[in-house]
Structure formats: structure tokens, C-alpha cells
Specification:
63% of the residues lie in helices and 0% in strands. With 300 residues, the chain is mostly helical. It has two domains: 35-175, DNAb Helicase, Chain A (Orthogonal Bundle), CATH 1.10.860.10; 202-299, 3-Layer(aba) Sandwich (Rossmann fold), CATH 3.40.50. It is elongated.
């Protein structure tokens, strides 16, 4: 009996993640959705091949609110993955092969989706609206779970913070993808950058490092650049990076963020003080400074 009571208590403490339907019942509001756009997007994908390629990387089955629309899109996605044609007949056949055709309303419903649109011209815009609605539903579910957990006396608040952060990051990571860029627009941007460089007085299109010879080669650090300083240990990589950061912040009045996995914030600042005062770091660590050196340190 005692063991059974323990098991009962364990079961009673199990928490379930609230789904969107339970949230609706609790708050009395219909979740964000756009069923007419779901129908338009699915219909367009079965009418025009280009429509599929323009939205296949934006959408996923769970983006659709209606269950049968999720199943239809999954069929389209499966056909696309297999490089097979996508139209009314192939989608119908794919759903039939998975035993889901009747679940989505049969061939009649598949056909009716294509009859509701005249063009697929705006399909990408429609798809992004659907994605926004899906993200809203995800956020509602996550926030409801956070609220429920926050009311529990047994909840560890720091674990709850970590969980909330992980869930929100997962929404962002899963749904916000970088778009492909077409070559004509990239060429136009490149030409615009070249013209801007030609008209620039100092020929620096990026953020100066403070090292004239280096800036002459790089034209300054560009927004999209990933710069790697590579050298053996104790060769001055951190000192060089700190000097560049100092130059950008002090001499060129640009905001800087410096992250280090090896040194603490105070150690990094000590390095900067050493550079500015021209005093060795080990002397600063020991506080081994003469009177005039202390004065110089305070003046700096």
C-alpha cells in the first residue's frame, strides 16, 4: 500500500506541457491563425512548380494550424524531397499511399484548394504570414507553461529561467531561417559598394583597426567579416585584439564588445591599463609602482 501511494504521488506531480487547445479553453481566445491563407498556399503549390521552391524552406507541417493542412503539406514536402512532380493527382496519390486521404477530406477537398486561387504571385508573402502566426502560437504555449510553472512553490526559478531561454531559442532557431539571395540583386549591391568606395574620401569602407598599413589592405573591418588571429601561445594575440578594440572604441568612437574564454574582465582591463601606461602587467599585478607611476596611473 505504501509503495502504491508513492507511485500515485509521483504520477500526480508529473507536469504536462500545455498544448494550444488547452490555452484556448483557459483564456477563451482563438489562437493566431490564417486558414484562408493556408488554403491559398497549398492550392498555389499544387498549381505552379515555382511556388513550391519559393516557400518549401519557409514552411513546415506544424506551421499550418489545421490538421488536414499539415498532412497535405507533408505530402507536398515528401514529393519535393523525392524530386517528383507536385500537382493535384500526385498529392492525392501520396496521401492515399500513407492512408491519410480520407482524413484530409478526400480528392474533392484537394481539388477545391486549387480552385480558390487565381495566381501564386504572392505565395511567399502569404507563407511568411503563416510562419508569423505559428510563432505566435508557439510563444503562447511557452509563456503559458512558464506562467504555470512560476506559480508552483516547488519550481526552481533558475531552472525555469534556463528552460524558458532554451524554449525561446528553439523557436527562433527553428523558424527564423536566412533567405536565399538572387544573383542580380547581389550584383547590384556589389556595384553600389564599389561606387561608394570610389566616392569615399578616406577609402575606408569599414571600421578602422588603428593600424594604418593593415587598414590600407583591408579597407577597415567589414560588417560581414570573420577575422581570425592565429599564432602560437604567448605571441600577443590577445594584446593585439585588445589594442584594436581600444583603437576602435577610443580613437574612432565605435561601440565594442570583447569576449574572452581565457581571461577575466578585470584581467583584460589590467592589460589595457598596462598598454596605456606603458607599465608591465606583472608590475601592475604586484602593485609594484613608484610614486610617480601611481600618479601616472591615476592621470590615465
Amino acid at each position: 500500500m505504501e509503495e502504491a501511494a508513492k507511485n500515485l504521488r509521483k504520477k500526480s506531480t508529473v507536469k504536462k506541457t500545455p498544448d494550444i487547445s488547452s490555452v484556448v479553453l483557459e483564456h477563451g481566445k482563438v489562437p493566431p491563425q490564417a486558414i484562408d491563407l493556408e488554403e491559398a498556399v497549398l492550392g498555389a503549390m499544387m498549381l505552379e512548380k515555382d511556388a513550391v521552391t519559393s516557400v518549401i524552406d519557409i514552411l513546415s507541417p506544424k506551421v499550418f494550424y489545421v490538421d488536414k493542412h499539415q498532412r497535405i503539406f507533408a505530402a507536398v514536402q515528401s514529393l519535393f524531397t523525392k524530386s517528383e512532380p507536385i500537382d493535384i493527382l500526385t498529392v492525392t496519390n501520396e496521401l492515399k499511399s500513407t492512408g491519410e486521404l480520407e482524413m484530409v477530406g478526400g480528392p474533392y477537398y484537394i481539388t477545391s484548394l486549387t480552385s480558390r486561387i487565381a495566381s501564386a504571385a504572392n505565395i511567399e508573402f502569404h507563407a511568411r504570414i503563416l510562419l508569423q502566426k505559428h510563432i505566435q502560437r508557439e510563444l503562447i504555449t511557452i509563456s503559458t507553461e512558464i506562467i504555470n510553472d512560476a506559480y508552483e512553490d516547488t519550481t526552481d526559478v533558475f531552472n525555469l529561467l534556463d528552460k524558458a531561454e532554451q524554449n525561446l531559442f528553439a523557436v527562433s532557431e527553428t523558424n527564423l531561417r536566412r533567405n536565399f539571395e538572387d544573383m542580380p540583386s547581389l550584383i547590384q549591391q556589389a556595384i553600389k559598394d564599389i561606387e561608394s568606395a570610389k566616392d569615399s574620401e578616406n577609402k575606408l569602407r569599414g571600421v578602422p583597426s588603428g593600424f594604418t598599413a593593415l587598414d590600407r589592405i583591408t579597407s577597415g573591418w567589414q560588417k560581414s567579416d570573420l577575422i581570425i588571429l592565429a599564432a602560437r601561445p604567448s605571441m600577443g594575440k590577445t594584446a593585439l585584439a585588445l589594442t584594436m578594440a581600444r583603437n576602435v572604441a577610443v580613437d574612432f568612437n565605435q561601440p565594442i564588445a570583447f569576449f574572452s574564454l581565457e581571461m577575466s574582465s578585470v584581467q583584460l582591463v589590467t592589460r589595457l591599463i598596462s598598454s596605456e601606461t606603458e607599465r608591465k602587467p606583472d608590475k601592475l599585478k604586484r602593485g609594484d609602482l613608484a610614486g610617480h607611476e601611481w600618479q601616472q596611473l591615476n592621470d590615465k
